Amino acid sequence: MIVALIIACEVGFWVLLALGLAVRYLLKWRRRSVVLLLCEPLLELVLFVATAMDLKNGAEPGWEHGLAALYIGYTVAYGHYTIRWLDGHAAHRLAGAPRPPRPPQYGMARARHEGGLWLRTLLGAAVACALLQGAVWYVGDGDTSSLRSFQWVALRAAGIHGLVALAYLIWPKQPKGEPASSDRPVRSEEKARR
User: What is the predicted pLDDT for the residue at 179?
Assistant: First the structure.
């Protein structure tokens, strides 16, 4: 039941998002689109309540409960970001707004962008771990090993993403054909100053 609800919440997220953007840009009903988009968090609330009720009714904590916590954590961290990104593209395609800016591709700007994404992943992992810890306390003396293993999944995902973001900081990506800042040739004016 929980897995089906997770799938339904994911489908519902995209359906509400598509409806909200269509109402906003095709029908030009801005207030109604805001109401539709504000219904998005209700999906996660329904999933949270259903998971808690499933555990309360004596269900053995399993991977589906851990997956529900990871899904809620991911949606909390990346839901608004995804909506904002798609809203910019819908405004461009459907309302003639300027093309939304692309994320930076090179240098420290790219490293800052990746660091911001990592902070979102860290937030998602923290929310998932908190929900899972609440479930562990709620279950009490029962077998909570599957819930604990999903806490480690969340922490590993945040750690791996942190390493990727750190790699962009240590080795910033440079445009092709442009030497790294330490390898750039010295200009003749710089030679004259020395």
Answer: 59
